[in-house]
Amino acid sequence: xxxxIAGLDTETNTFSPIQTGLEAFSENLIxxxxxxxxxxxxxxxxxxxxxxxxxxxxxxxxxSLCAVAEPGGKTTRAVYESxxxxxxxxxxxxxxxxxxxxxxxxxxxxxGYDDVxxxxxxxxxxxxxxxxxxxxxxxxxxxxxxRMVANASMIAxxxxxxxxxxxxxxxxxxxxxERTLAGEVRPVMAVYDCRLVSTFHPHKAPLRGIxxxxxxxxxxxxxxxxxxxxxxxxxxxxxxxxxxxVVTDNDPQMAARIAEKFGREIYDAREEMxxxxxxxxxxxxxxxxARSGPVVLADVSDNAGGGAxxxxxxxxxxxxxxxxxxxxxCLYWDPIAVRMCREAxxxxxxxxxxxxxxxxxxxxxxxxxxxxxxIASGITQRFGPTPLSIGDAVWVSAGNVDIVLNxxxxxxxxxECMTALGLDLATKKIVVxxxxxxFRAGFEPIASEILYVGAPGALQPRxxxxxxxxxxxxxxxxxxxPLMDQG
Length: 487
Ligand SMILES: [Zn+2]
Description:
Blueprint: E1 2-9, H1 22-26, E2 29-32, H2 45-56, E3 60-68, H3 77-94, E4 99-104, H4 116-128, E5 134-138, H5 146-151, E6 154-157, H6 166-181, E7 187-193, H7 207-217, E8 223-229, E9 243-249, H8 252-268, H9 280-289, E10 295-299, H10 314-321, E11 327-333, H11 335-344, E12 349-354, E13 366-376, E14 380-383, E15 386-389, E16 393-398, E17 401-406, H12 416-419, E18 430-433, H13 440-443, E19 449-453, H14 482-486
Helix pairs in contact: 2-6, 3-4
Bound molecules: zinc ion (ZN).
Zinc ion binds next to loops.
């Protein structure tokens, strides 16, 4: 057997001012055929699983491009087209292959391509023809388009958020590919559109129970795989929204039935899953009233992991204006401020303009007199088992407010992005992190309480107010009963 593998992973926030070009990929990962010989990157981990499993089977593995960028605005056309050409050319050179497995995101938008993954899968399908199985693993924050489903043979998305099961799903998908190649199963897919645009949290009820039941039927009675594509709300594309995907063994009617059953369950539970994001001042009041600290405040609107700039100042400004102390806040993507601190040196006191630099979603910059406490490079923070760089970093203090600035745009995953600089979080009343939910795995053990704040920003979470121009169907929470409204 000969298996062809490749990966392309970035999530596109079409409302973000950040351009995603070659530099954005370069500072994360561009590997031309050797991603699995380099250190583990969270987005190349599927390819490690597939390569190792294939080699254990004695299969030949042809590894093509693996390109990963921090989520941002649209990918530039030239970059996407060059990546696609690399993958397609490598595939043509590798033909004939027995199977293709692709590690994709599912919510990538490039200039001229609203459905990058659908376009890539279509190009791959054209090369291999109708009979060679193509598998794709997607982030659950995917748009899950008809074009993807039409051109892939089997698709599975992660089920957990934080995404702790990327490798588990990769392994399941490999076993499904193995059975397909052995002629034991013939995967067919069906999708159900839930007409919901929101974020969903599988760590709590009612979604936890639904996801557990999705898992329980996998491998039973001809059901091969069940995925809930949460959707990625900040993509202005026709296919934005939550979808249920079911893969069965050659039974499209059953796939459609089960997709509808689970999709309707999620639809029916929508009000229960509505999030209450606190305003900045209410969140600060609640944190100050807590008996013990630290209370972790999630600045979900400035999550670089969803394409936001990562330098917004809305929450920090209120903390300073209100004179709140014993606060730590991170990570502020501000290479200019980092450079000024580096020039000044550890221990220096200086007037520093922090954040608010990238665009309107960043708010206004904040002018503070700060003390440079620590300057460091080589600091990493764990995302699951993978240590990820935060670039160069500086810890500055404005009175009793500690702020971490860095040079590599990334969300806050783990306390070690602060503790590695020497910051002691146990003494803090409030810790502000720029992240939507991935911070939970790292911060839950140290937090007395976690509060989600709906500040302004590129990922503002009032989904009924998102300025969609391409979504033609009614959706919740814009309307209360979108399925009924459609008849
Ligand atoms: Zn995701």
